[in-house]
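Quick check before the chapter quiz. The format below is the same one you will see on the exam, so make sure you can read both the input and the output lines.
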Amino acid sequence: MISGFGRYVLQEINALLVLKGIAGGRIIPMKRWQFWLGVIISALLMFLALRGLHLGDVWQALLAARYGWLIPGVMVYFVGVWVRAWRWHYLLRPVKSISTRTMFPIVAIGYMGNNIFPARAGEILRAVVLKRREEVPVSASLATIIVERVYDGVVMLAFVFLNLPELARLTVDSGFVGNIQTLALWGVAAFIGVLAIFLIAAMFPQTAERVVQWFALRFVPERLRERVMEIALRFLGGLESLRSPREALMVFITSVVIWLLETGKYWFVMHAFDFQVSFFALMLMNGIVNLATTIPSAPGYVGTFDAPGIAVLKAYGIDGAVAASYTLVLHVALWLPITILGAYYLAKEGIKWGEGLDSLKVDNGERSYGADHHG
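Here is the expected output.
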């Protein structure tokens, strides 16, 4: 089932500080039990998704697919990745102006990390790589990444919300779509609420700083207070791009374009199989599966992507074997190209694959940012 907003935010914060924060200048790996919990959830969802299907029929649908349609799909997807790089460049402008061309490889590395490591660890990986390359404080870039995630959540819920009338008439024997209408309504309200908090914090930075100081003085142990304040102030600095309503609207429009381009990939891959649904149906599927991937899972969103994707297509009357083959091919087409490209760029950064995330260091010199930055 798609998680509510609270679970989404906790998962996204866990993805950014997931490796349990920046402590002692080192990224700390997630606990082993969290990894195995994700594996168990993925296995359970894959079992539910494929239960009752004849795997021979799924295999035949895979053999009959016209894989040439994946080529334009991948091309459209990489246009979307370029737009993501532009959006990150746009959000980071108040901190440091960095070209989209420079940001593109770092974004690719981040999405590769999301696909390889558990709990969306690629988000913090790209923040660390950006720190290594451009000396952008990690906490400031993490603020922009969280803003990205909130905007993405708003757009995903909008995709679902726009299709609520269609969703209401669908019937399917699946727990994945039964309560989506209620969740979407609550989710839209919650995401807009959090976005409003970010906008207010960006437009009234002095008030936001006083609020942070008030909480720090009352709830943070004295030995950690200075460090927490430094990180919080750098985080607020990362929200500066939202101070102008025009710029906030630009980020939203860019986010819509990104997800429409990704839905375009769904549309191209659909033509490789013998079924047709509307572009709006694919928008609904895109929204549902991406919200579902906020649930903990094995690396690569195994199960959390596939199970709801198959359920949505079955709700539209698509044969289960065809729905499963399409969803599995789509998943691989989304996962493999960006993972290969990100691994290539990671190698160019001089970071050895075997080092993993544990060896990436966050420069403690970042502490000086709080005194040097004026915004």
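If your answer matched, good. The two ends are 42 Å apart (CA to CA).
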